[in-house]
Design a protein that fits this description.
With 341 residues, this protein is an all-alpha fold. The protein has one domain: ABC transporter involved in vitamin B12 uptake, BtuC (Orthogonal Bundle). Helix content is 72%, strand content 1%. The chain contains 13 helices and two strands; from the N terminus they run H-H-H-H-H-H-E-E-H-H-H-H-H-H-H. Strand 1 and strand 2 form a beta hairpin. Helix 1 crosses helix 12 and helix 11 crosses helix 12. The radius of gyration is 22 Å and the shape is globular.
Length: 341
């Protein structure tokens, strides 16, 4: 009888081991398998130029996703990040091309606007008590309209014709363009270096500082955090200010990359950024927002889109696959880990 009991315990132990292994490493294994499949399908996928292209493709929405990690950590969400990034693209172009001002001024103006929009989001959520989804959704539509006003709904580039037939006198500063098009030591794309720098800062703040512990505590139980002395409202506002500022930085890098103020530059930034941050929940089975998982999620989405493009998949199929992967990753992580601490 005891032998049957011991055998049953051994089977349960093995089952628990494989479940933990699947939760922790399952997503990374799937990512590695997809990488191998795309490499087999088209050997061009493995070329260094294409691998750098995948990294570059992930940089903008990875930066945005790192910023939105802060609202996610406090159990919120910022839907305005894509619009803030698009606003930065247009404003930076307007400052340099139309106003003929410096790239430094353009960067400062964009970062200030991003922080200001984040502060307004925080005020609406914390003071006015509007739910975060509704407040940031309203801000998203507001900013989408505002970004078109300075240029009258037109893209802004060198030699752009303004209202009244006047030609814009300025151009993008060379050092500004270096942020999106340059390479450090002729090897590492500047945009990738900025993404890595932002990821390191976010990791240090969330994982190695008291501020990060308070952010996570608020996300777990805001009332308990308040009772032990945490300034919950201040931290919640701070999360949205950080999100807005980092989104503006992403827009600056995007503007430097395309070299013009494109009215359609926002594109799918919001969905890709949110998707990257949410996929991060599944990486290593942490089930919470984290900068490492966010970067992996962004690279995964970029790799997936790159590979599907090489397979000549239509764009609508790519969106379907991307959404399916996101749902499957989260369902797998939370479903298998149900009931575990």
């Amino acid at each position: 009888m005891s032998s049957y009991i011991d055998q049953d315990k051994m089977i349960q132990s093995k089952s628990e081991f494989f479940k933990r292994f699947a939760i922790r490493y399952g997503f990374l294994i799937v990512m590695a398998m997809l990488f191998a499949f795309f490499s087999w399908w088209n050997p061009v996928f493995l070329r260094p130029v294409n691998l750098f292209s995948i990294l570059l493709g992930a940089t903008i929405y990875a930066i945005l996703a790192l910023g939105v990690t802060f609202p996610l950590v406090i159990d919120g969400l910022d839907l305005s990040i894509g619009s803030v990034a698009a606003l930065s693209v247009m404003i930076s172009a307007y400052v340099m091309v139309v106003l003929d001002a410096s790239g430094v001024l353009a960067i400062l103006v964009c970062l200030a606007l991003g922080a200001g929009i984040g502060a307004i989001n925080g005020f609406l959520i914390v003071r006015v008590k509007i739910p975060d989804l509704l407040a940031t959704l309203g801000m998203m539509f507001l900013v989408q309209g505002v970004q078109l006003i300075p240029s009258g709904g037109r893209s802004i580039g060198r030699g752009a014709v303004l209202a009244g037939g006047v030609v814009a006198p300025g151009r993008f500063s060379d050092y500004f363009l270096f942020l999106g098009q340059g390479r450090i030591f002729g090897i590492v794309p500047t945009a990738v270096a900025i993404m890595i720098a932002v990821a390191i800062v976010v990791f240090v703040v969330l994982s190695l500082t008291r501020w990060g512990r308070v952010f996570y505590a608020i996300g777990s139980n805001a009332e308990a955090a308040r009772l032990v002395g945490a300034k919950v409202d201040t931290y919640r506002v701070m999360a949205y200010v950080i999100s807005g500022t980092v989104a503006a930085l992403g827009g600056i890098v995007l503007a430097a990359r395309v070299g013009r103020g494109d009215v359609s530059s926002g594109g799918t930034l919001l969905m890709d950024a949110i998707g990257s941050a949410l996929i991060g929940f599944a990486v290593l089975g942490v089930r919470r927002p984290n900068p490492f998982g966010t970067i992996v999620g962004a690279i995964f989405i970029s790799m997936l889109m790159n590979g599907l493009s090489m397979m000549n998949m239509p764009y609508y199929v790519q969106d379907f696959v991307k959404g399916s992967v996101l749902v499957a990753a989260l369902a797998f992580t939370f479903g298998l880990s149900k009931g575990r601490t």
